Amino acid sequence: MQILIATHNQAKFDRYKNILSQINGLKIFSLSDLKISEKVEENYTTNTENAMHKAITYGNISGLITIGVDEAVMTNFLPDNEQRLA
């Protein structure tokens, strides 16, 4: 099975590839492996929505099962409505 990890961030890709490579039979691709240079705008309200948008968009481009990655750092000193990172 072939899977695309939808991030241009090499460190993020390496981290997820390391985790997923423990599953036998997976062939894991990066956007750069597939020569995909398009950037997807992350203009949704939540990280989940941004990750889903990336997975759908890059999945449509590549034709592969795609994992969208959008992580954020959260703090304990800001209210939830101020936690969003641009």
For this entry, give a set of tags.
86 residues; alpha/beta; Maf protein; 2 helices; 31% helix
Structure description:
- The protein is an alpha/beta fold and about 90 residues long.
- The protein has one domain (about 1-80): Maf protein.
- Helices cover about 30% and strands about 15% of the residues.
- It is built from 2 helices and 3 strands; from the N terminus they run E-H-E-H-E.
- The protein has a 3-stranded parallel beta sheet with strand order 2-1-3.
- The chain starts with a strand and ends in an 18-residue tail after the last strand.
Q: Could you state the oligomeric state of the chains shown?
A: single chain
Structural class: alpha/beta
Question: Kindly, what is the distance between the CA atoms of the first and last residues, rounded to a whole number of angstroms?
Answer: 33 Å
**Strand arrangement, largest sheet?**
2-1-3
Report the strand count: 3
Radius of gyration from the alpha-carbon trace, in angstroms: 14 Å
CATH architecture: Alpha-Beta Complex
CATH topology: Maf protein
The averaged pLDDT comes out at 88
Question: What's the overall geometry?
Answer: globular
Helix content: 25-40%
What is the helix/strand order? EHEHE
State the low-pLDDT regions, or none. Answer: none
